[in-house]
Automatic annotation (TrEMBL):
Residues of the full protein shown: 385 to 670 of 670
Domain EAL: 24-273
Entry keyword set: Membrane, Transmembrane, Transmembrane helix
Organism, scientific name: Blastomonas fulva
Protein known as: GGDEF-domain containing protein
Amino acid sequence: HVKTGKKGKIAVYDAALDRGRLRRMEIEAEIGTGLDKGEFDVFYQPVIDAHSGQIVATEALIRWPRRAAGVLVPQQFIEIAEATGQIHPLGMFVLERACRDVGPLGDLSLSVNVSPAQFRDPGFLRQVAHVLEQTRFPAGRLQLEITEGYLLSQPETAIRTIRSFKAMGLSIALDDFGTGFTSIHYLRTYGFSHVKIDKSLLVDLGPGSKASFLVAGAINLARGLDMEVTAEGVETHEQAALLRAAGCDRLQGFLFGRPMPIADLRAMCAQGTGDLRQGPPALRAL
Ligand code: C2E
Ligand code: MG
Ligand code: MG
Ligand code: MG
């Protein structure tokens, strides 16, 4: 492979030259054309109230059904988009689409994942306000999910940004709680409205298991600090029952529904909310 260097010099690499890097460059170019051609899609996973069994919220999750090239999962291309800056248009695409899709769904809350790079962008707050205005989506129904990596690197800025969003009426969730090093002190000072317990904490979650004590501790901690708790990755009735007993407010996972097109979520809301007994099997069993 041949590559033109910075000064126009030709550098020759051996074939092993990061196949990974070449692949990343390909994906980077494809993200660009994918955005132009409208290839990206947004799916929605239901979030269930642990006590009523009603669908109370939904998380927007980006999807990229590439024509011939096969599926890339978000973790693969989001990371590249973060490195190239393409996460900014990609993230705004998801936000706008999700506000339009979920807007008509009664008072369902909407959760949108936000990358650290977006959250760090000084223009982000204004862009979010603009999308809310354009789509007439009520700020009070929108939640932004952030992971702790960024928080630890820029605590002051993060706290300020979180305050500004909360002043606009949005809520902020700490995503993937339990996978990193968030200290109790940080949990207190950031002012999250929600925490989402990572699915890795639910592995081997059975009655009396070590996992159950860990999860119960995490739930108590968050609730003691006035945060609502969502568990994600709930796949079994046993997990759901344990989480509910431990005081978890909301449940999200394949047990209740995989991420799905908006039309399917709409159908699920139509039959699943209100009377539990008429909902889909997973809801009925709660
Ligand atoms: P996340 O925000 O923690 O989202 C939850 C992930 O867990 C989703 O994976 C979802 O499909 C998966 N999941 C939900 N329930 C279950 C379950 O019961 N079992 C299992 N095994 N998995 C479950 P997905 O859609 O592949 O997304 C992966 C990650 O990519 C997300 O993790 C989020 O960090 C990121 N991501 C997705 N969409 C966006 C986006 O629009 N913007 C940004 N910045 N990141 C996104
Ligand atoms: Mg999330
Ligand atoms: Mg998560
Ligand atoms: Mg994650």
